[in-house]
């Protein structure tokens, strides 16, 4: 039973694989003419977004509606938050309205954990991204996408044992990278992170990763997947690299680097993509690119997480 989903570090291997297996069940339901399931009928879920979002917010909303839940979309812009209402008062207001679950995105690292631990509201909490901390459903959908591509129809009950994944770019500010590193490790993959020294966080020696500054050297070695990250300039308060051209030349998946990749190397990007900067259009649109698979699979994975957290079970009935 998973009472909340705040961090991928909280998931055991068995729990992570169970969520991926439920995601596969949800994907099968998505192929039907009637895609709706009654699993969360009568439940009210609020999507509490203090940061702008397209993919994550819409993906959660689609997932909730396919599970027959009632959905409230809350945006900090245009709400009482803009008038100075505190985080606590917003949550208490939602509690009194009788919501059954909260999906939260917040610019402050730790906000979902705070919500899950305090007595302001006693409902399941799902982290949709908090500051530079974590984005667990993105990591789960990435793992699901890799597993489905690697194992195909025989993926069920399997992890990612032996998979070699390279994560490239702004590791320092990336909650996606943090969630992926821990989940991929839990599932048996080996991870190498590549970035300029200024975009690597402190304490990496305590993370289950190898570290490199040289993307060409890493890509010259065998790997199974390359995950490119967006440079999060909105979180930067200093110059972390001289200019976009230098960054792309050193750490972008340029056309030249893409052509040197083996055609069976999977390419991922959590989006939104800055084409021509961190990834070339040729790489983003290649047949080995799983970017659109990630978007589609996000709905199924979030359906699985919502089902598991709100019903208290890790097995589809």
From TrEMBL:
The keyword Heme does not apply. Pathway: Pyrimidine metabolism; UMP biosynthesis via de novo pathway; (S)-dihydroorotate from bicarbonate: step 2/3. One of its GO terms (cellular component) is cytosol. Gene3D superfamilies: Aspartate/ornithine carbamoyltransferase. It catalyses: carbamoyl phosphate + L-aspartate = N-carbamoyl-L-aspartate + phosphate + H(+). Keywords: Pyrimidine biosynthesis, Transferase. It holds the Pfam family OTCace_N. Transmembrane segments: none annotated. GO terms for molecular function: amino acid binding; aspartate carbamoyltransferase activity. Residues 4-147 form the Aspartate/ornithine carbamoyltransferase carbamoyl-P binding domain. Its EC number is 2.1.3.2. GO terms for biological process: 'de novo' pyrimidine nucleobase biosynthetic process; 'de novo' UMP biosynthetic process; amino acid metabolic process. Residues 161-308 form the Aspartate/ornithine carbamoyltransferase Asp/Orn-binding domain. It is an enzyme of class 2 (transferase). Belongs to the aspartate/ornithine carbamoyltransferase superfamily. ATCase family. Catalyzes the condensation of carbamoyl phosphate and aspartate to form carbamoyl aspartate and inorganic phosphate, the committed step in the de novo pyrimidine nucleotide biosynthesis pathway. HAMAP family: Asp_carb_tr (MF_00001). NCBIfam families: asp_carb_tr, PRK00856.1. This is aspartate carbamoyltransferase.
């Amino acid at each position: 039973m998973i009472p909340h989903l705040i961090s991928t570090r909280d998931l055991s291997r068995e729990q992570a694989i169970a969520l991926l297996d439920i995601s596969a069940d949800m994907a099968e339901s998505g192929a039907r003419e009637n895609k709706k399931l009654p699993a969360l009928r009568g439940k009210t879920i609020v999507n509490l977004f203090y940061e702008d979002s397209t993919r994550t917010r819409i993906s959660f909303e689609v997932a909730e509606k396919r599970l027959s839940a009632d959905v409230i979309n809350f945006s900090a812009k245009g709400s009482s938050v803009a008038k100075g209402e505190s985080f606590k008062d917003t949550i208490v207001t939602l509690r009194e309205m009788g919501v059954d679950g909260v999906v939260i995105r917040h610019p402050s690292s730790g906000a979902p954990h705070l919500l899950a631990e305090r007595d302001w509201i006693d409902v399941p909490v799902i982290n949709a991204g908090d500051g530079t901390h974590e984005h667990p459903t993105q990591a789960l959908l990435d793992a699901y996408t890799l597993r489905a591509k690697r194992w195909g129809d025989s993926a069920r009950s399997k992890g990612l044992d032996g998979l070699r994944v390279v994560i490239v770019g702004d590791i320092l500010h990336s909650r996606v990278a943090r969630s992926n590193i821990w989940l991929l490790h839990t599932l048996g993959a080996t991870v190498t992170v590549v970035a300029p020294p200024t975009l690597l966080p402190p304490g990496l020696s305590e993370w289950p990763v190898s570290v490199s500054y040289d993307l060409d050297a890493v890509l010259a070695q065998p790997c199974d997947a390359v995950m490119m990250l967006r440079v999060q300039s909105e979180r930067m308060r200093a110059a972390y690299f001289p200019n976009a051209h230098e960054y792309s030349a050193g750490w972008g998946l340029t056309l030249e680097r893409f052509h040197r990749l083996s055609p069976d190397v999977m390419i991922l990007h959590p989006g939104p993509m800055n084409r021509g900067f961190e990834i070339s259009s040729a790489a983003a649109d290649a047949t080995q690119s799983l970017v659109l698979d990630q978007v589609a699979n996000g709905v199924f994975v979030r359906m699985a997480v919502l089902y598991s957290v709100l019903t208290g079970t890790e097995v589809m009935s």
